[in-house]
Write a structure and sequence with these properties.
It is a single chain. The chain contains nine helices and 13 strands. The strands form two sheets. It has an eight-stranded antiparallel β-barrel with strand order 6-7-8-9-10-11-12-13. A five-stranded parallel beta sheet has the order 2-1-3-4-5, with helices on both faces. Helix 7 links the parallel strand 3 and strand 4. About 35% of the residues are buried.
Length: about 350
């Protein structure tokens, strides 16, 4: 091959090898930060993870707003999370790409938490640094990496908080990101929670009493955060909610019911319940004039249980023993049945129509 053609071939090969990076963007490209303060904090977080090990029931992943649990939020943290051996993995100024790098470089080593609380992306929204789609892709990559590295850990994905005293383009940009992130929630492995509206008044203003710089949180704002996820978090951890009152469930009404099918894909239907004191009756709709009857339905506080029997395609019947809990207006639970001599559990959830 003569020299000109050899050079052209080499150039085309080089281009092909670099095509992935040509079409990549910063929000999904794992990267560390070079400043010493960040490197020292990263080292500290790795030490925290190693020290906590499998004792940690919950971890928090994010930027300065998450790191702030050690400052303005420290008393709220002590109330809600200290006894759960929670680990704070927040670093001020971080973007999605920095989280992606940290998750591969020690922040998760030795940890086996039941829940990971994630809130990240606001720093990617500055100016023209990243588009709405790119920020959403960065957060999605973080959720995927957590699911890959910690398959037994439930992810509580927090909608990115509003920022700025008044409604303005950056706040709108974050709202658009959240609209995409909402689709990540399946109420089985990933739970999407949005309580950002609690920081905004009827005029769209954020009070300095909640965010003094209209970005970072005060102690009352951290209390809003903790109380907004407490019901869900305690359900995942299997412990008693902090400050929980003995409030009975009211299950009467129509619900959108979802359960993971034998192939792992969700199966959905309508569930109609009627509660009379501690007794629950109803049905799960299977089609026109076809349904599964709710049997032995009972309520105790926020706990719900029943059995459901269905016909099997190859003859006979299959009985599901269902149990669940009402958490923030949604039902979450397990359905257990016997198959080939073994008990098979399936997660299910339901939310009001």
């Amino acid at each position: 091959m003569n020299t000109p053609f050899r050079l052209i071939a080499a150039g085309l090969l080089g281009l092909a090898l670099h095509l992935p990076t040509v079409f990549a963007h910063s929000a999904i490209d794992p990267a560390p930060r070079g400043d010493k303060g960040w490197q020292d904090r990263q080292k500290l977080l790795n030490e925290r993870a190693a020290e906590a090990g499998d004792k940690a029931q919950v971890i928090f992943i994010g930027d300065s707003i998450t790191q702030g649990w050690e400052g303005a939020g420290k008393e709220v943290w002590a109330k809600y999370y200290a006894h759960r051996h929670a680990v704070n993995l927040g670093i001020g100024g971080d973007r999605t790409q920095h989280i992606l790098w940290r998750l591969d470089h020690g922040n998760l080593d030795g940890l086996k938490p039941k829940a990971a609380v994630v809130m990240i992306g606001t720093n990617n929204s500055n100016g023209e640094d990243n588009t709405v789609e790119q920020i959403a892709e960065g957060v999605t990559a973080i959720v995927k990496k957590l699911r890959d590295k910690l398959p037994d850990t439930k992810v509580i994905l927090i909608a990115i908080f509003p920022r700025g005293e008044n409604p303005q383009p950056q706040r709108g940009k974050l709202l658009e990101v959240n609209q995409i992130l909402q689709r990540l929630g399946d109420n089985r492995d990933v739970f999407y929670v949005d309580f950002g509206y609690k920081f905004v008044d009827a005029h769209g203003l954020i009070a300095a009493s909640l965010m003094p710089d209209y970005l970072h949180l005060t102690p009352p704002a951290y209390e809003i955060w903790a109380s907004s996820i407490e019901g869900l978090l305690s359900h995942i951890l299997g412990d008693t909610p902090i400050g929980a009152a003995a409030v009975g469930a009211n299950l009467t009404g129509e619900w959108t019911w979802t359960m993971k099918g034998p192939d792992g894909n969700p199966v959905g239907s309508t569930m109609i319940l009627k509660q009379d004191s501690d007794r629950v009756t109803g049905k799960i709709v299977r089609g026109p004039d076809r349904w599964l009857e709710i049997q032995d339905g009972k309520v105790a506080g926020n706990e719900f249980s029943c059995t459901v029997t269905r016909d099997r395609a190859n003859g006979g019947t299959m009985t599901y023993r269902m149990s669940g809990k009402l958490v923030d207006g949604q039902l979450f639970g397990l359905a257990r049945t016997e198959m080939n001599g073994s008990e098979v559990p399936s997660e299910w959830s339901a939310q009001r129509k």
